[in-house]
């Protein structure tokens, strides 16, 4: 290979790299939430999820004591992974600042340990979820969504899960990657929900959208984007899954993690451009990577989870049944 040819190849590579960097800077640009939703196939743009993040706290204040009292009498189970633990920590922070809410958060593993000890001590009636509260535990089979769904179903239909009043399975970023078969996972989840409801008709299922990652950045990110790899491609797949999930269970309660964490405190939405379509991405104010929330992100999602649970109390449930609305965290009820 001649020196001139090597020089030519080197210059060409640099040109591609700089062009890719330019693409990266434009692809991950925050835009208004309405603009971000003007994707192919959308009939109309949606309103921003959070018009004014400064008002989040007041939304909790607007929830009446009757609703909190109803939730205080329920056994709520949340299956999650690393990110979910941080969200629960956010819930605990909110509860410490608002003790009047009165909800108790309990790790499932501690409850299991207590039950085992009581059984050893001769208490034959000891069982899980004996007291009301928000129980949370590790979801099995991270990165294998169909196995995770199956384990969630098996637990709820087991004697241990018989006392649960409300349940939510939180997917992780690892569960929905760029190569995930969205239709297959959604069908597995929908089938599981149907079987659970058939066996446990009084159990309230709260759905959760798959969380997002922050946009790709830099020259390497641009190259990954050009070949269909990286976080942006994965976020596009998560966006397709989340949209299909919302459509499949329209009119039901959602903990819409993806929608909440893609809207910045100023109300703009962070999106990425993938094959001509814009999809939501994680705002860096709330987190970095798939597992690390910032203090602001933890508190924000903790509030959103409490708002979501409040949509399941008696009064809200009755309104939902009458009006067939989907509850979106941070944005209240909206018609579908």
Enumerate how many helices there are, as a single number. Answer: 13
Order of helices and strands: HEHHHEHEHEHEHEHHEHEEEEHHEE
Main beta-sheet annotation: 6 strands, parallel
Q: Name the CATH class.
A: Alpha Beta
- Rg over C-alpha atoms, rounded to the nearest angstrom: 22 Å
Q: What share of the residues does DSSP label as strand, in percent?
A: 15-25%
- Percent of residues in helices comes to 40-55%
Count of extended strands: 13
- CATH-wise, what's the superfamily? SGNH hydrolase
Gross geometry: globular
Distance between the termini: 63 Å
- Please tell me the CATH architecture by its name: 3-Layer(aba) Sandwich
The order of strands across the largest sheet is 3-4-2-5-6-7
Oligomer designation: single chain
CATH T-level fold name: Rossmann fold
**Which regions have little confidence, pLDDT < 50, spanning 5+ residues?**
1-52, 323-336
Total domain units: 1
Mean pLDDT: 78
